[in-house]
Known about the structure:
- The protein is α/β, with parallel strands linked by helices.
- The protein has 4 domains: 2-97, Rossmann fold; 106-111 and 176-292, ATP-grasp fold, B domain (D-amino Acid Aminotransferase, Chain A, domain 1, 2-Layer Sandwich); 125-173, 2-Layer Sandwich (Dna Ligase, domain 1), CATH 3.30.1490; 311-418, Rossmann fold (3-Layer(aba) Sandwich).
- The protein contains 14 helices and 20 strands.
Amino acid sequence: MKNVLVFPCGSEIGLEIGRSLEFSKDFNLYGASSVDDHGLFVYENYISKIPFVEDDNFIDAICEVVKKYKIDFIFPAHDSVVLNLSQNQERIGAIVVTSPFKTCKICRSKKDTYELFKNIIDTPIVFNIEDNLKFPIFLKPNIGQGSKGTFKANNIEEVRFSIRRDASLMLLEYLPGKEYTIDCFTNKEGVLLFAQGRERVRVSNGISVNSRLENNEIFLEIANKINSTLVFRGVWFFQLKERADGKLVLLEISPRVAGTMSLSRVRGVNLPLLSLYDLMDVNVSILLNDFNIEIDRSLSAKYKMDISYKNVYIDFDDTLVLKNGNVNVSVIAFIYRCLNKNKSVFLITKHSGDIYKSLEYCKISKELFAEIIHIENDEHKFGFIKPESIFIDDSFSERNIVFKNLKIPVFDLDGMECL
């Protein structure tokens, strides 16, 4: 297995790389961050306190991590990290999963990108403050990502105020139309194997939280022009936005994974994984399932707790099997996680029928349980529970009695997500 480091691993980009590689039999994942972000809760192999990318000691620290953990590949999960790691590729001792430094450098600068492509594809009109400006005007940092530091100015006073705060801001034409991301893959021969567009329907903090597939011949035409002008290797993407007349204009290009590339991944095109295989000189091909799909994202939660337990006691009625007769797949998944961690799972129930026949009817194997404890209605469950245990039951009265007598953690179904 090859060892892969993701930095910073808790960004939306880093989390998507983790999801893309976590089940691969060929790669062992490591996550690292400068501050303890969400990656701490997601990556099993987590490395903290890496200096920030702007720090003079950043590359030295990365080199130490590469040596200590025998890292073979590094996935940069932030635009500044892409540029820094690609520039220092020879020092690092691991392969940086991105395009050549020259490409990364041009893509990091909006000014350089627009200058390179202005006679090849449509790029935004760039103004000077002395020009006869037609408002609104969009102000964007030359070097930036997402929507950070951007402003829509409606008059010259707002333009001047914004420039006083950040002299690096570019004055661009305002593009009011739809925005698209085109996820791309270029193989080791420089051939563009994949270019899939998606509309950025709803954006929050620069992240596309709702996106749906969009097919347009112009996307592929522009992708080929970009691919013929810059040298790419592996995964990359570019973004377009419509003018009022519907004409598409280039916003940016980035030689890295995008957080919403999951929309292609679930259809069969795992761009981070393909990039690794391509860098290992494997001849890769594209297998794309032919169905339409839309993604919508919200905040999700992971938990860390200070409880320790060896045994789990779970109720049957309305817990393992819901009131509509369906098996609670979340509980089944939790049982298997417990078994993977060598914890003992006990089924404890006052089920009115034959519990073994009910399990068989629901196609739940009795072998999942260290013991099946079938008790009478007038008996108390706490009398059958061993020390170092947790208890899961939909009934408040059952949980309350167990908690008062044993002082162990007790959980309803809605509280199990922390487990």
